[in-house]
Design goal:
There is one protein chain. This protein is an alpha/beta fold and 318 residues long. The protein contains 15 helices and ten strands. Bound molecules: 1,6-di-O-phosphono-beta-D-fructofuranose. 1,6-di-O-phosphono-beta-D-fructofuranose (FBP) binds next to helix 3 and helix 13.
Length: 318
């Protein structure tokens, strides 16, 4: 166990050994295992965005087994997906990659206030050998309180059964504007809410320099909170999650040019982010390209320079 992972686990000292072991499993797995950083592959977009939008750019991705293999070949820390995708490969790839079962999902067909359905159970996660449950909350939605209460119950059960809890905290709905969904004040707020709800790992979108709430804007100005660069904004979001004592990772977003992704990753790493969860930018690329991109992302988090993650794995990196 590296000193850094031990230190991270100490932030969750109130948890039982099962939870700590499962957190350690994710933190210790893959090319950057042991560094305290994480790169996770999430593939719930088939449900969230529809199959064509998700998988047509790289049709190999229609096959659930493809994503297990991609996460393994890319040396990710974990693979996250809804029940159907995990059930379709969990036996074949048993023990090869830590799994996160996403326990709620929503589609883009109903044009109403966002409110995901609970689509799996804690016992499903245990049956599939997962390390953690995953759950999305939409702060800003008129239905957010239902999500918070569902999460409260699932978190209590998951923790009692020794599983870690990963929360996707995505502000969305009638309470926030489109720009507000990724505003820096809202992103910090979203991270805080997830931490207060008991999340061990919190996932938010990279924050922009927009400030959504007028009252927050006054404080940002009065306290001179810097938000000019992505690194500064990430620092604010990480601070908002218990002063950096929760693992906060950032999502990849829509498929974009490699240079744009890497610039974003460097900003997240510089700001003290704990890693990334990169879906479309991974599985919508041809496999070799996706593996190379994920390795490059891991290298940034592992330290500096190409191959940093491999050196870490070999025990020769600082
Ligand atoms: P991406 O890297 O593809 O953005 O995946 C991260 C993720 O959190 C997925 O788990 C989820 O399906 C998606 O983002 C939601 O994206 P959006 O907010 O655009 O619907």
């Amino acid at each position: 166990m590296s000193q850094r992972v031990r230190e991270i686990l100490s932030w969750y000292a109130g948890e039982n050994p099962g939870v700590l072991t499962n957190l350690a499993r994710m933190l210790n797995h893959g090319r950057i295992g042991g560094s305290g950083k994480m790169v996770i592959l999430p593939v719930d977009q088939g449900f969230e965005h529809g199959p064509a939008r998700s998988f047509a750019p790289n049709p190999a991705g229609y096959d659930p087994r493809y994503h297990f293999q991609l996460a393994i070949d890319a040396g990710c820390n974990a693979y996250a997906a809804p029940l159907g995708f995990l059930e379709a490969g969990a036996a074949e790839f048993a023990g090869d990659i830590p799994l996160i079962l996403k326990l709620n999902n929503s589609d883009t067909l109903a044009k109403i206030e966002p409110e995901p359905a609970v689509t799996g159970s804690v016992d499903d996660a245990l049956r599939l050998g997962a390390c953690a449950i995953g759950f999305t909350i939409y702060p800003g939605s008129g239905s957010r309180n239902n999500m918070y209460q569902e999460l409260r119950e699932l978190t209590a059960e998951a923790k009692a059964k020794g599983l870690a809890v990963v929360v996707w905290s995505y502000p969305r709905g009638s309470g926030v504007s489109k720009a507000g969904e990724t505003a820096v004040d809202v992103a910090g707020y979203a991270a805080q809410i997830a931490a207060q709800l008991g999340a061990h790992v919190i996932k938010v979108k990279p924050p922009t320099d927009h400030i959504e709430q007028p009252d927050a804007a006054k404080v940002f100005e009065a306290q001179h909170i810097p938000i000019g660069t992505l690194a500064e904004r990430v620092r604010h979001v990480v601070q908002s999650a218990f002063d950096g004592r929760r693992v906060v990772i950032f999502s990849g977003g829509e498929a974009k040019a490699k240079e744009d992704i890497m610039a974003e990753i460097r900003g997240i790493a510089e700001g003290g982010g704990f890693g990334s969860i990169v879906g479309r930018n991974s599985f919508q690329r041809p496999k070799a390209e996706a593996v190379a991109l994920l390795h490059e992302i891991q290298d940034v988090y592992a330290g500096a320079g190409t191959g940093a993650a491999d050196r870490l794995l070999a025990g020769v990196a600082s």
